[in-house]
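Researcher: Excuse me, tokens okay?
***
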Amino acid sequence: MPTRTTTPARKAKEAPHPRRTPPVATQHLAELAWNVLEDKGEDVIVTKEEITSKIGATEGQFTRLKSYIRDHITMEKGKAFLAFREGYLFTTDPAKIAENVGWRLRRINTELRRLLSGWINPLGEDVALYDVLKMYQEEIGHMLRLAERMEKLSHSMPKPVKATKGKRRRRTTAATARAT
């Protein structure tokens, strides 16, 4: 039987990509990223570049680890993970959380409006011919009205302020003397 020779094109196709990052579990990277944030402290903004360079994550891995942090680690730690002003942080500050939620809701609102204006409404009266499109049009309209109501309500409410824990005061001898 003659020996098979491999063509240069086939060798190149079979060779592993030298630029490909070895797979790392998202959970592991998310925990490493959370440790980077914890090392900086609560309410300290850390850039994406700093996080990815310290844990050796790619863009795609960073995107997945953010989802894992939001879906799992935040509940475990009891702290919010926010994309906040050019970076990321974890916090329990209600003002920062409210600001971030408002920003995200505005982005969702914009996307919903674009679904209507760019995809559904251009069909005009023909939307009524398709039950699914009609349902989407009605429900997205309902979501937009709800978002508008939430926006108005949020403006009428006082801005949240981070609660400070009451400090226990030590009784001094003078305070004890006055009490007796």
